[in-house]
């Protein structure tokens, strides 16, 4: 038997794209590599895996059910449709804001030299929605990309989002699009600092920790 046999693990990965008009969008910088590596590791550990992916250029890992989405609202709908899950690992870099109105036609320069106004509205917070959901996964894990005071920000985020763990990564270096990552796992139990590792090693270690947590408190 494998450590996650019979478990359903939900993972979000990649950026979201929030359209402004037919040719422009707002996005976060995210390759999707860390989330895809986590989905792959969960499948190798025997889980049924649903991977809700924003727009990325990555192949679907073996044994993973992939749902492709574009926007934060589509990502939230796909996540809710995938419930119930034993654990959810929200790795996606969701855009915090979207255009208040999406233009049907390409917005043109009007020749005045003044830029077209762009009104924004806040997107739903998918992690926080799950944290307070009637079908909240037993283990809810968020990511936090920070450039400073990494652990402090992660502790604040735990409470705000209703998550069990925050995987805080220091993105002051060249994590974005790269193959390695330095993370700290912040939970009510304390802070677990991991050395710099390849993203696939972070994925394996995190999935091992998820399997340990799920078996320590069986349902
Ligand atoms: O607040 P911040 O964006 O730093 O939180 C990061 C964590 O929250 C990540 O796990 C990310 O996937 C999740 N998140 C989300 N929906 C949002 C914003 C962030 O699920 N709208």
Automatic annotation (TrEMBL):
Cofactor note: Binds 1 FMN per subunit.
Protein source organism: Sphingobium olei
Parts forming coiled coils: none
Its job: Catalyzes two steps in the biosynthesis of coenzyme A. In the first step cysteine is conjugated to 4'-phosphopantothenate to form 4-phosphopantothenoylcysteine, in the latter compound is decarboxylated to form 4'-phosphopantotheine.
Domain DNA/pantothenate metabolism flavoprotein C-terminal: 4-212
Protein name: Coenzyme A biosynthesis bifunctional protein CoaBC
Pathway recorded for this protein: Cofactor biosynthesis; coenzyme A biosynthesis; CoA from (R)-pantothenate: step 3/5; Cofactor biosynthesis; coenzyme A biosynthesis; CoA from (R)-pantothenate: step 2/5
Family, per entry: In the N-terminal section; belongs to the HFCD (homo-oligomeric flavin containing Cys decarboxylase) superfamily.
Annotated gene: coaBC
Cofactor(s) the protein needs: FMN; Mg(2+)
Domain of life: Bacteria
Region (Phosphopantothenate--cysteine ligase): 9-219
GO terms, molecular function: phosphopantothenate--cysteine ligase activity; phosphopantothenoylcysteine decarboxylase activity
Enzyme Commission number(s) of this protein: 4.1.1.36, 6.3.2.5
Catalyses which reaction(s): N-[(R)-4-phosphopantothenoyl]-L-cysteine + H(+) = (R)-4'-phosphopantetheine + CO2; (R)-4'-phosphopantothenate + L-cysteine + CTP = N-[(R)-4-phosphopantothenoyl]-L-cysteine + CMP + diphosphate + H(+)
Positions of CTP binding: 96, 106, 124-127, 143, 157, 161
Keywords: Decarboxylase, Flavoprotein, FMN, Ligase, Lyase, Magnesium, Metal-binding, Multifunctional enzyme
